[in-house]
Amino acid sequence: MSDDAHPLLGRTALVTGVSRRKGIGFAVARKLATLGASIVVHHYAPHDEQQPWGGDDLDAVGRELEAALHPSARLADVGADLSDPEQPQAVIDRALQLTGALDVLVCNQARSGGDGGILDMTAERLDGHWAVDARATLLLTAAFARTRADAGAPAQRPGDRPERVAFGAPTGRVFWMTSGQGHGPMRGEVAYASAKAALAGVTRTVAAELLDLGIVLNTINPGPVDTGYLDPATTDRDLTETLQYIADSPFGRFGRPSDPAELIGWLATDRGGWVVGQVLTSDGGFSLG
Q1: Dmax of the chain from CA atoms?
Q2: Taking 80 as the threshold, does the pLDDT of residue 42 lie above it?
Q3: Do residues 250 and 181 make contact, with C-beta atoms less than 8 angstroms apart?
Q4: Where are the alpha helices (DSSP H) in the chain?
Q5: Which domains does the chain have, with CATH numbers?
Q6: What is the mean predicted confidence (pLDDT) over 151-166?
């Protein structure tokens, strides 16, 4: 069904955290749409409305994504607070309703605000970021994996290595989003950095288990991408040093949402199927100093 211009035609992708046209989630959803996929987008507008950069018009978000669709592809959206542990399964169930199948999962949701340095840290702050940034990603992935698993399969124990079945091609793709916590300090973002570090740290373990189902997992670190929080007019932080660092960098700019979107788009196609279980940094050399 697919063709060279639309390699994802006939497939369905769910992208979480798609509520702002300046965001990475929107850029990823639009890229997957241009590749032919039907798209389900998740959003939670109340979170964005509390941020300095504000929310967006969800109807306009939908219209722009719809304009990028292949004529035979479809679009749906679902609003959900992923800090609620019941919602990841509900979001996967809603995504399955669009076409009856789900092929690509992009866990892009993230919590902004409510963080601090180690002296500010509380259980509430840690739990708030863990719930959205890490736990929801793991629960979404688990729900996605169960759509391809044998319901009667025994529970895995530490060290289990089930007999592996060879797959001619990946049966699905999962993408996690992490941050630059492995490349340098993220002052004032202890809760966010710890949750994202958990995803980076467990990538290989979950990727190995998902391969038993033919599912390919990779984690993307997009580096500093200006989605509003790096705009002097709407930032929540002091950008003095960051702006000077960027000005002296090889490309002289922050990342654009389209940068990680292009990488995820390629990895989601058959051409990217040989890359498995990696934490990939796509930051224009920012982390090289």
Answers
A1: 57
A2: yes
A3: no
A4: 24-34, 45-49, 58-68, 87-99, 123-129, 136-146, 190-211, 240-247, 258-268
A5: 12-147+169-288 (3.40.50.720)
A6: 79
